[in-house]
Amino acid sequence: MASFDVIIIGAGPGGYVCAIRCAQLGLKVAVVEGRETLGGTCLNVGCIPSKALLHATHSLHEAEHNFAKMGLKGKSPSVDWDQMKAYKQDVVDGNTKGIEFLFKKNKVTWLKGWGTIPAAGQVKVGDEVHEAKNIVIATGSEAASLPGVEVDEKTVVTSTGALVLGKIPKSMVVIGAGVIGLEMGSVYARLGSEVTVVEYLDAITPGMDAEVAKSFQKILTKQGLKFILGAAVQGVSTKNGKAKVTYKLRKDDSETVLDADCVLVATGRKPFVDGLGLEALGVEMEKRGQVKTDHFATNIKGLYAIGDAIVGPMLAHKAEDEGMALAEVLAGKAGHVNYDVIPGVVYTTPEVASVGKTEEQLKEAGRAYKVGKFSFMGNARAKAIFQAEGFVKILADKETDRILGAHIIGPMAGDLIHEVCVAMEFGASAQDLALTCHAHPTYSEAVREAALACGDGAIHA
Ligand code: NAI
Predict the structure, then answer these.
(1) Which domain covers residue 278, as residue numbers?
(2) Whole-model pTM over 0.90
(3) What are residue 334's DSSP bridge partners?
(4) How far is it, in rounded angstroms, from Cα 121 to Cα 300?
């Protein structure tokens, strides 16, 4: 038995960041992780491998569609799927080993195995019980199941199986037009699969600014993805490695069956807290299965939870911020997360990024606002790389000009959004952004132009 100031269960972005910060603040810390490698879903089977596949397939798209335009002639590359998966795995391995290195550097103990909490202040891993003044649940989430759909991770897959398909399917049905569905759907569409996305709602990416979502759908349709909206999937059957997907249109209840070589179920995720022993401990839970917390503290003294296991957007960076904030709280400091400034990014091409309020939310709240919009058509850099289709939209308070939200669809949107995040953290006005000199020629000039459009007008519009 060993004794620690903090034991964190789960080495995903929430858990490992919390551990490193705890160690930096002088606490004796251990992380329980049952996977062979650190980094959780994000590094092993989520954010990182999917970005590798998105990069590889975007490169293929460039070679097939844009190289000749730039005078780069010759045969397009052929796809060696096994090599592409090996490259993806190399990227994953490099990153997970990186976390192992950071644990050693910061003297974080890795307790290998699956942890349970037999009693307050105790964590059991294998046959050993360890003691801790504080325990943090950072166990993340898993794919939610869909009634009538049995996942075999071969023909009917979640995002995990979608990363390692035996071969590139001729046809793929994606259930759910959320972030996972569109990112992985893009990967396979670029690899030549016929991708059909079936979505329950009447728009893709629920919660996204409606104007951006509409434009996003148009662009993805041009890239070859097919969308069936307002359609509830009833079930999936499989036979000899082929699938049949039955859906009902919500408007008239009509039923249709789609054939597919592969079905990706991307209808959301749920907290993964099974087997921790929370019920026996009497830990209060939310109705939707998350651990109930107040500033990360559960109802049990010394037991905390962060990341996908608690309420809030299921995003790696939200978990990381909570991990850092909780470490500070445990070290006697004032840890804080500003939930009003958490960006969201979809890593398709173009990327889509947002922070703060959408127009729909502002309307619903009855808030007087103004819109500054700038199309990437007016941005020289975007035009040079054939990505001038999107736009930047900044929403600011009508009276005070304070930035309330930003929505970007276009090149490097996932990086550009952070300029607005920093501005929002400082309570900046759109004019503050507009008066900041931006290097030319950069994509970020489009952000400045949108800020200018909140005032006397953009220059290149
Ligand atoms: P999601 O919640 O983003 O989207 C699920 C979609 O499925 C919704 O549009 C929903 O209306 C639809 N749906 C549900 N039941 C359906 C049915 N029976 N028939 C048809 N459509 C149905 O979930 P997703 O994409 O699985 O992602 C899970 C979580 O992982 C999300 O919280 C997401 O933010 C996170 N994630 C974030 C990424 C990023 O930040 N780039 C990348 C991947 C995942």
Answers:
(1) 3-143+270-330
(2) yes
(3) none
(4) 10
The protein residue with its alpha carbon nearest to ligand 1, atom 6, reads 176
Distance 434 CA to ligand 1 centre (A): 35
- Please return the burial class of 444, using the count of CB atoms within 10 Å of its CB with bins 0-12, 13-18 and 19+: buried
Per-residue pLDDT for 73 more than 90?
Answer: yes
Same domain, 295 and 323: yes
Tell whether the model's pLDDT for residue 76 goes beyond 90. Answer: no
Ligand 1 atom closest to residue 316's alpha carbon, by position in its atom list: 40
Q: Does an H or E element contain 325, and which?
A: helix 316-330
What is the predicted pLDDT for the residue at 268? 97
Q: Residue 266: CB partners within 8 Å, gap ≥ 6? A: 143, 158, 159, 174, 175, 176, 178, 180, 181, 184
Q: What sign does the CA torsion over 46, 49, 51, 53 have?
A: negative
User: Given this model, what pLDDT does residue 358 score?
Assistant: 98
Q: What is the largest CA-CA distance in the chain?
A: 68
The Cα–Cα gap between 386 and 370 comes to 30
Shared domain check, 391 and 323: no
Residue ranges in 107-163 assigned as alpha helix (H) = 159-162
Residue 367: which CATH number? 3.30.390.30
For residue 181, how far is its CA from the centre of ligand 1 (angstroms)?
A: 7
Residues 160 and 262 in one domain: yes
Q: Give the whole-angstrom CA distance, residue 123 versus residue 133.
A: 11
Q: Please report, rounded to a whole number, the percentage of residues in the chain having pLDDT higher than 90.
A: 99
Report the residue among 146, 175, 267 best suited for mutation to probe ligand 1: largest number of ligand atoms under 8 A from its CB. 267
Three-class SS state of 98: helix
**Number of other residues whose CB lies within 10 A of the CB of residue 26:** 9
Q: What is the pLDDT of residues 39-65, one digit of tens each?
A: 999 999 999 999 999 999 999 999 999
Give residue ranges with CB within 6 A of ligand 1.
146, 175-181, 183, 198-201, 206, 232-233, 266-269, 314-315, 345-347
CA of 19 to the centre of ligand 1 (A): 29
Determine the pLDDT at residue 14: 98
Average pLDDT along the chain: 98
Q: What's the total number of domains in the chain?
A: 3
The verdict on 242 and 282 lying in the same domain is no
Report the alpha-carbon distance of residue 182 to residue 316 in Å, rounded.
Answer: 18
